[in-house]
Write a structure and sequence with these properties.
heterodimer, A: 334 residues, alpha/beta, Rossmann fold, 5-stranded parallel beta sheet, two-stranded antiparallel sheet, 11 helices, globular, B: 324 residues, 2 domains, 7-stranded mixed beta sheet, 5-stranded mixed beta sheet, 37% helix
Amino acid sequence: MATAGGTPAAAGDNLKRLTDLYRMMVRIRTFEETALEAYKAGEIPGPLHVSFGQEAIPSGVCASLRTDDRLTSNHRGHGHALAKGADAATMYLELYGREGGYCRGKGGSMHIADFSVGMLGANGVVAGGLPIAVGAAQGLKLLKSDAIVVCMFGDGATNRGPYLEALNWAAIYTLPVLFVCEDNGVAAHTETRTVTAGEGPAARANAIGVPAVTIDGNDALAVEETAARLVAEIRAGRGPRMIHAKTYRWCGHTATDAAAWRDPKQVEAAKTRCPIARLKAVLIERGVAAASLDDISSAARDEMQTGRAGAHAAPWPGMASAFEDVQDAGAVHG
Amino acid sequence: MVETTLVEAGRLAVLQEMRRDPRVWVLGEDVGRGGLWGQYRGMLEEFGPERIVSTPIAESTIMGAGLGAALVGTRPIIEMRMFDFVMCAMDELVNQIAKVRYMFGGQAKPAVVVRMPHGMWRNSAAQHSQMLEAWFAHLPGVVVVAPSNAEDEAGLLVSAIRSDDPVLFFDPKDLWLAPGAIADGEIAPIPFGKARHARQGDALTIVTWSAIVPNVLAAADQLTSEGIKVDVLDLRTIWPWDQDAVAASLARTKRLLVVHEAVEVGGFGAEVIASMIDRLGPSAIKVAKRLGAPRIPVPFAPPLENEVRISPAKIVAAAKAAMA
């Protein structure tokens, strides 16, 4: 396992690539910090699930993807959408429920999708994306495409039936799917280890016939290198693979959840393993000027503040849109 | 016309559409062996295992994979084997398929057909006999199709496969082998929301659909022989449904009887009656009655199952009560 403490990456390691990886992680962090501020200010309605501490996983995985590769996400999916190429300002519009948002204000934080960049949607149901991901891969195979599908889900999803079904499905049909289990150790408000038998997500995947590797999900280099290798294997037609990325969720389940059940020391300890700080240390060690990293942070703040302000000022959707995009035949009134 | 069975009419419709559009494919248990009733007989040989996909018994993923494949531009036919098994795939159907277009602001069009052979079938008991089509008429985002004969099975299946909407297609499995006929040559699509005017009369409007239609027609013929000419409308699709045809018939008859095999309580018959009272006003309708199954699971023993079935005699009695 590579560590972000200075171990050289195996292949194609260069500062531009690492800086891009760093920039994406900072953008995800800043997007969610800004969203949380707006939420606390009462500007964003509905539930908001943030992913502080998990930014290395979507950033590292999506670094190896093409725009026409597809991705299915879950309820904690802001980072997945940004890493797949979605636009932050359009995402804010959706978080605010405004006209011009990705879903025209009909989805919100839990349902952000951008089909134009292959982001097939966040999902409000744990494990909901797993069957969809394998079907997308099957469809792409039928269409003779060499695009692949990435399926992001949490450790909580591995106790639901679709985990077994979808992994088995991908294996028997040799489908181009990269399963990515973001194991933050908590399923909603319950520590996953207390409700899970056996050796965990990777062992289950291997038993089904989907080769799985467990990595430190807070090590951006490890995530990026592992994903690059597995994506290449999948694109070569070798069937599904899985990354089991261990991480830690700094925040509660939702923006209003203080996660008071856990020892604050646990969270403080997790923050010392911050994936962004770790990659920053690597970049500085390799000669990147601290000022240029500060520029990345300040550009991200500008981008997100602009997006937030634009969304806050944007109009609500027209009322007629509530009745649109239901279905073609028999919409609203049969 | 060509004489055929309902199951074969459906097979010919799928065959026609798969030859016409390479994006159409089938997934479900045992479809490579022709399906449980031969709905897909011979298709593996013609289209190969990538388009006739025999799957594990994994309903959640059969349904969800169909959706995923639709999201990348293919047009899957999702075979559920038995309607009752859709209960294992309700998240994928209700939370995902029915919602993605709306929830994603129109980015997605989940063009799937979900075939669900439903209804009572040879003493198959409570988990292989249900008719819950009303649940799905209640669900925004889907089309609900429930044909009763070979011609409608074929024409509605063609429409379903060509539709960009998710179409829940309830095959009436008790009628698989009922003799029927379809047109020579190309099977033309039958539009959703157009009832079939199965019998003409001015005494009473009977609205019905799916597997019970033959019994309704038998009852109508008996009533005719007794001098009571009833209007029979086979809705064919219950969402959308042909409110204009029912209203036009009621304008003549003023009397309405809805007959369905599903449980009467909370059934779609209640929706038909309520809609017509809203539309025409209570004074325009002299009688509005429902005839459906009692609110019990379908029993196994043949005499008990027969007790639950809506026989022509029960329909005749209900019609006469509505005429009183």
